[in-house]
Specification:
This is Ribosomal protein S6--L-glutamate ligase. The protein is of the alpha/beta class. The chain contains 9 helices and 12 strands.
């Protein structure tokens, strides 16, 4: 199996890559040329291999998959995850609670974000017109939802392997890489049911599903991540994501082109 990263991300995630190599036979491939010619060269390099696709390049994922390359996650998962407007529509289609999102500004105050941002970047709390970012990217707008924490559920295949509660210390962005405090979190039955519904509909292999935890105990979904990082999981759990992924990869290889969920 080939694990595909962009060069900078591979350096940032070298520890995880090394850990994955302990449990499964993988080859790291770094790639940064997403031009048409670059994709043709990439296709030649990965054809005939399964690819653990760890980049945010939906057009590349679709190109490879359309040319017969087996991706983990599927191209459609990468596409929806990296377009917050598509994610919002997907959550609505499933009927799970989701933060109302629109393409036109709301009455102040509100949250605005780019459609393709990730990791807590490119998100702004707008309290006055001067807070609006001076960028040309497509922006989405959401109301400010009072909440006590942000929760990320980690899902491998159809199995929820853990969840992390993330609380911001001095910012509305509850992201571990931005300094939020983290702790292990036990999902309620309702939360678990909705997370499983999302993962099943996506037919995903490895994602992080994010929701806000409201003061009254209810939850409202925000987005899901592909690729998803596991630093907060390792900080709060004894299980090893790399080992769990290796078990999932082994199962995929043994059952290809089927999955366990295809069995009666």
């Amino acid at each position: 199996m080939i694990v595909l990263y962009e060069s900078a991300a591979a350096q940032h995630n070298q520890g995880f890559i090394d850990e994955l190599k302990r449990y499964f036979s993988i080859e790291l491939l770094t790639w940064d040329d997403w031009s048409e010619d670059g994709l043709e060269q990439l296709l030649k390099r990965v054809q005939g291999h399964s690819v653990f696709f760890r980049v945010r390049q939906p057009h590349a994922a679709r190109f490879l998959e359309d040319n017969g390359v087996r991706l983990i996650n599927r191209a459609e998962v990468n596409r929806i995850a990296n377009d917050k407007w598509q994610s919002y529509q997907f959550f609505q289609l499933l009927g799970v609670p989701v933060i109302p999102t629109q393409k036109t500004p709301l009455a102040l105050p509100y949250i605005t974000k780019t459609a393709d941002g990730h990791g807590g970047a490119e998100v702004w709390h707008v309290e006055s017109p001067v807070d609006m970012p001076a960028i040309e990217s497509l922006l989405l707008y959401q109301p400010v939802v009072p909440h006590i924490a942000d929760v990320r559920a980690y899902v491998i295949g159809k199995n929820i392997v853990g969840a992390v509660k993330r609380s911001a210390t001095d910012s509305f962005k509850a992201n571990y890489s931005l300094g939020a405090s983290v702790e292990r979190f036990e999902l309620t039955a309702a939360q678990r049911n909705d997370v499983e519904k999302i993962a099943t509909a996506l037919n995903s292999d490895y994602i992080g599903i994010d929701f806000l935890l409201l003061e009254d105990g209810r939850h409202v979904f925000n987005e899901f991540e592909d690729p998803v990082g596991a630093r907060s999981f390792y900080q709060t759990h004894d299980d090893n994501i790399a080992e769990l992924l290796a078990q999932h990869f082994t199962n995929l290889e043994q059952n290809y082109p089927f999955r366990d969920s295809d069995r009666n």
